[in-house]
Amino acid sequence: MRRVTFDLDVLRSFALGMELGSFAKAADRLGRSTSAVSAQLKKLEDQAGTPILRRLGRGMALTEAGETMLAYAHRLLDLNDEAAVAIHGGELEGWIRLGLQEDFGEALLPQVLGRFARAHPKVRIEARIARNAELLERISSGRLDLALAWDAGAGSAHLERIGEVPMCWIGPADEPVGWHRDSGEPLPLVALEAPCLLRTAATAALDRAGIPWRMSFTSASLAGIWAAVAAGLGVALRTTVGLPGSVHALAHADLELPPLPMLGLALHRAEAEPTPAVARLADIMLQSLQQLSEFGRA
């Protein structure tokens, strides 16, 4: 098999075009002509030795090989950018106070902290896992520099709405939920202690659908929620982010539960002009979020 060295500049055009949903938009963003980007895509297919794009209506879609290429393109570009920052941005120092939802603790935090620490070993990060209301209060009072929180309409002075994830009903992975809509029994609910954004969303959706419910288990932590659902104590409403193997998302038809909307996600900054260290950490968080399979750009 011949050795192929992919062109990072070509991969960047390819990845940006898929992110924006248009290679014309990518060309504009990169300051190139559309024909130049088309030539880059042709070069990438020649290097890959197989088509990576196919016609779909008036647009383009990824082939199976294209999906594989896009995943590797993100990884190669991230490493390239990390190397550039490590060489040219290693002088960053200071202290960053980061807050985020417990849902992202395992799904996002290790990757983000690892990438940032390798590039900026002199910056100290203090991470706080908390609920939405506390995160927003700490951002507003200046006790956090950066916070990733659900977008429930309550904002802060300097927020960036970055995307949305699906809300879903969660049940145990290894056994059926012991409840049916025609059983005459209220649906047992598992939720975080009030006030909780997703707890309120669950009860409101059930009330609108005319489904009776009872609170069967409450917990102060997400770990307690997963344990209770896995044990069969009830159904929870969460997002698809960070689900452990002991639980899974239920299809609406499984229990005839009401469908649920998407839930927005926002990145909040304490200052309009953050320090270079805070700005760099925010960039890494956004890049890592784009790679989560559950996450969709708004």
Automatic annotation (TrEMBL):
Single GO MF annotation: DNA binding
A Pfam match: LysR_substrate
Domain HTH lysR-type: 6-63
Keywords: DNA-binding, Transcription, Transcription regulation
Domain of life assignment: Bacteria
Family: Belongs to the LysR transcriptional regulatory family.
Identification of the protein by name: LysR family transcriptional regulator
Lineage of the species this protein comes from: Bacteria, Pseudomonadati, Pseudomonadota, Gammaproteobacteria, Lysobacterales
